[in-house]
Amino acid sequence: MSYTYKYPRPALTVDAIVFHVNEVLLIQRSTEPFKDMWAFPGGFVDENETAETAVQRELEEETGITDIELKQFYTFSEPERDPRHRTVTIAFIGKTLNRPIPTAGDDAKNARWFSLNELPPLAFDHAEILEKALKHK
């Protein structure tokens, strides 16, 4: 049986915050909103997958990187955080010792490691997310 609700529902997304020593992994967006800006690898959770599966899938699709243990960190739900529509993001944190080389894919134009001391301007609310993640790290 299928149910329909009259109430609007927010979209669910995931972000992968991956650290290597004093660096963080970022992707350059190839589409709007925030085209050409840098962001965490991430995206929308598909209808039939868990958030944990989605974050691993998005990380691999956008950077080619696999085998990073990601732990759920925080849920970001400010109503205006995404200009497209109401979006709630579950952020995951991971660390790697071997610094895999990222290869941009899917809707990522570029993917690379950035020093935490030399970050580009970040899309969405990712600067705030990173600030919170660094306190948690």
Q: Which fold name fills CATH's third level, the topology?
A: Nucleoside Triphosphate Pyrophosphohydrolase
Number of helices: 2
Structural class comes to alpha+beta
Whole-number radius of gyration? Answer: 15 Å
**Mind telling me which CATH architecture this is?**
Alpha-Beta Complex
| pLDDT averaged residue by residue | 93
Please give the largest β-sheet.
7 strands, mixed
Total DSSP E strands:
7
CATH class: Alpha Beta
Number of structural units classed as domains: 1
First and last CA, distance: 44 Å
CATH superfamily: Nucleoside Triphosphate Pyrophosphohydrolase
Helix content: 10-25%
Low-confidence segments: none
Overall body shape: globular
Strand content: 25-35%
Order of helices and strands: EEEEHEEEH
Report what the structure shows.
- The protein is globular.
- The N and C termini lie far apart (44 Å).
- The chain has a single domain (11-136), classed as Nucleoside Triphosphate Pyrophosphohydrolase (Alpha-Beta Complex), CATH 3.90.79.
- The protein is an alpha+beta fold.
- Strands 1, 2, 3, 4, 5, 6 and 7 form a 7-stranded mixed β-sheet that branches.
- It has 2 helices and 7 strands, in the order ββββαβββα.
